[in-house]
Amino acid sequence: MLIQRFNEGDIRAFEVLVTKYQRRVASLINMNVRNSSVAEELTQEVFLRTYRALVNFRFESAFSTWLYMIARNISTSYHRDGHMHADNAVSMDVLAETGHPIDTSRAENYAPSPEDSLCGQQLLFAIEQSIDRLSPQMRNSITMREMEQCSYAQIADALDIPLNTVRSLIFRARATIAHDIRPLLDSAISSG
Fold first, then answer.
1. Domain 111-192's class?
2. Residue 41: count of CB within 10 angstroms of its CB
3. CA angle 128, 41, 1 (to 5 degrees)
4. The pTM is what?
5. CA angle, 131 as apex, 94 and 99 as ends, to 5°?
6. Interhelix angle for 114-133 vs 136-146, to 10°?
7. DSSP of 57-126, one letter per residue?
8. Tens-digit pLDDT profile for residues 133-162
9. Taking the domains of the chain in order of start, what are their residue ranges?
10. How far apart are CA 29 and CA 144, in angstroms?
11. If DSSP codes are grouped into helix, strand and coil, which group holds residue 34?
């Protein structure tokens, strides 16, 4: 509906699409480039390209799938063109900006101890580091599934890979992350 309105000349319909998807696209790109300012620029590029190409959208897939494919292509181009540097370390600010879903319903009366806070930060950092070491295809799959709540079919469409490959990638990503953070969890359990 919004796409049709945009194609009929309603620019505000595109603004609604941007508002609806901007955070998700930025989060997906940030997981790939590990730099919030670069992710912001690339996100703008995604929506600029989307704006230009929306008249060609054929409704053969979900709009979000098509949009994520554009984001994936722009991230891939960024990597391929040599803009990734080994010194792009993950900071705690980046962790806060990644859009991880956090349940705050029980947080009102809870004040974590400094040890709990440090343990939680270390765990988030370990998870981010583990995700960062995954292959790009595995990283994109797990990010789209866990952060963007995409279905396996949407991920398969966006990444242009078979559905069973998506299932395998996500299974392996979860196993790798669990293996990587196990020592930290074991340490926290034994000291707590």
1. mainly alpha
2. 15
3. 95
4. 0.52
5. 40
6. 130
7. --SSS-HHHHHHHHHHHHHHHHHHTT---TT-PPPHHHHHHS------TT-TT----HHHHHHHHHHHHH
8. 999 899 889 888 887 778 899 899 888 999
9. 1-84, 111-192
10. 11
11. coil
**Contact of 65 with 154, CB cutoff 8 Å:** yes
CB 173 within 8 A of CB 142: yes
Find where tokens 């508002």 sit.
19
- CA dist., res. 159 & res. 68, Å (int): 8
Q: At residue 174, what is the residue type? A: R
Q: Which two tokens stand for residue 41?
A: 């620029």
How many residues are present in the chain?
192
Neighbouring C-alpha atoms within 13 Å toward the C-beta of 158: 29
Q: Does domain 1-84 have CATH number 1.10.1740.10?
A: yes
For tokens 């079919």, what's the residue? 153
> Cα–Cα–Cα angle for 60, 140, 78, nearest 5°?
95
- Token readout for 39 is 């992710």
- How far apart CA 142 and CA 139 sit, in angstroms, is 5
Q: At a CB cut-off of 8 Å and minimum separation 6, what does 146 contact? A: none
What confidence tens digit (pLDDT) does each residue in 76-134 have? 888 777 664 333 333 334 334 444 443 434 434 444 455 555 566 677 778 888 888 99
